[in-house]
């Protein structure tokens, strides 16, 4: 049986996908320990040797601020790698599922972004991810580009939830930005959607000639980083997580400058994918509760 190839096995999404993919899929994973994906000729040969039935690319250069200082590395990983994967997917005539980001948008909207909205990234990371999307579109029609947002999960190195919990254990007071609005999305919710897509493709219930293209997939509901932080601490307290934190102060973006500019509003509408897949839209707070339960289980 041909395997499904998953790239980015050590990332927060990659680990969650590996955990949740049903055993009916023979999953082959690749990570940096196997090879540096930016060696694209080697990467293509490795994929050809594996002969997968589909590719899921959960690997990316995701250091948003660092990308401003090393754009070559960001573009190597976020543009050249997806292009190589699209080329090899074309050669093998298999679907490529690739993950992208809300940061392809400039954040000037005041209603959820749809797939038809014009991207206009305001930082190197967003530009490199958009370049990757465009490389795929130009190379191979049988692709599903799934943009997500404000991703966090129990597995993997770091994310906003884990940072808040860490700081909440050592600091009495914290400042968090309240004028950036988005869709906090758990890796579990995203991975479940991706798996439904992969399953639909595998059993030919989904026809790429009709549905290949770009989609958004985020938890429902909106929040500022401040709202999100408040919810994290409320839910953590309800689970007896050891916090010393007393107070969270709302900050403006101007009061908390970062190297990279971030969109002020990057809520994604997932309606298009909800018409293709049997998804149950789930509010971000519900997914946050599940993630904290999963995290606490792993800490026991
Ligand atoms: N995080 C977010 O808030 C967010 C928001 C919107 C969209 N997204 C998108 O969602 C997807 C998954 O993100 P994530 O948060 O799960 O990312 P992540 O935790 O940072 O994981 C990225 C993965 O890519 C791998 N990788 C990076 N450079 C590599 C290289 N040169 N060779 C081989 N592997 C390499 C990393 O390997 P190492 O572990 O060895 O570094 C890791 O496995 C990405 O496409 C990202 O752009 C993320």
Would you write up a description of this structure?
With 300 residues, the protein is an alpha/beta fold. The protein has a domain at 4-155 and 184-219 and 267-275: Rossmann fold (3-Layer(aba) Sandwich). It is built from ten helices and twelve strands. The protein has helices at 12-20, 40-50, 71-92, 124-139, 160-170, 187-202, 208-211, 225-238, 271-276, 284-299, and strands spanning 4-7, 27-30, 54-57, 96-101, 143-148, 151-152, 173-177, 181-182, 185-186, 213-216, 223-224, 247-251. The strands form four sheets. It has a six-stranded parallel sheet, with helices on both faces. A two-stranded parallel sheet has the order 6-9. Helix 2 runs parallel beside helix 3 and helix 3 packs parallel to helix 4. The longest helix is centred in the N-terminal third of the chain and has 22 residues, at 71-92. It is globular. 45% of the residues are buried. The protein binds NADP nicotinamide-adenine-dinucleotide phosphate.
